[in-house]
Amino acid sequence: MYTSKISGLGYYVPENVVTNDDLSKVMDTNDAWIQERTGIKERRHIKKGDGNSTSIMGVKAAEIALERANLTTDDIDFIVFATLSPDMYFPGGGVRVQDMMNMSTVPALDVRNQCSGFVYAISVADQFVKTGMYKNVLVIGSENHSGGLDMTTRGRGVSVIFGDGAGAAVVTRSEEKGSGILSTHLHSEGAHAKELSLEGPSTEHWVPEIIAENPQEDIPYYPYMNGQFVFKNAVVRFSEVINEGLQANNLSAADIDMLIPHQANLRISQFVQKQFQLSDDQVYNNIQKYGNTTAASIPIALTEAWEAGKIKKGDLVVLAAFGSGFTWGSAIIRW
Questions:
Q1: Alpha helices, H only, the chain
Q2: What is said about its interaction partners and assembly (predicted)?
């Protein structure tokens, strides 16, 4: 068995900044209300005509990650692309990245695990590398939420939370024992699937059916979230899956140098930080300026923390996520 490590990181966010005050002009909300409930001050949205899409942002993040890994597209053996917002219903974003980056006929896999997507994708990459099947795997998390949000008062409970962006990591074969990705831990609980969901358009709810059967004030092709229920489950599952990863490697919370939680809600991150008795220097949050970018949130935050020098060789880095599905997971990494 080989080991696997993250050899390169990159991220990209659109230039268009949308503040809480900007949102207050199109819906009944305000900066204080949003910050109190989510911790978010602003987010990035794709602007019509700026040339961005889910796949294009993924490519921009991937190009940075490859350069930092001192690799070219010829070195990539496999693409794992995590998103809930692909450019089109099918095909997925992975093959579009393969085409846009002029890669050879490398396989491309799409992961649809929403907020846990990047952790799931890292786990897939880790296993393929550790078994020796692939040497370098490109992992991307990218999201274009803004075009599918209900930007009215009716949808404010969800729409104020989400932003657009992409992050990427290169997972590379290593023979250095005791370092790299030590383990990953994944879970799901489909019983609560509809508590955070987008029911249509889908094969169960095609657009003509939705329009015909539902009154205009109850449009099911916008995302739905039972916020309090999601919050209560998230804080429990975050703690469980972090502890699971630590115990699997004979570690404790005192060994954590940096926790990168999925940026779902600043209050969730602060609750988990308090549970594990971590200082502000041991947890990285950037939801304040990007909002929740779903599958992109962990790689964006991980890249920013690394760029800021907050992650150094030998550090124990923990990634953890919880989201729609419900799905959740963690990755324990010795940098």
A1: 20-24, 31-38, 54-68, 93-100, 117-130, 156-159, 207-213, 227-248, 266-275, 287-290, 297-307
A2: Homodimer.
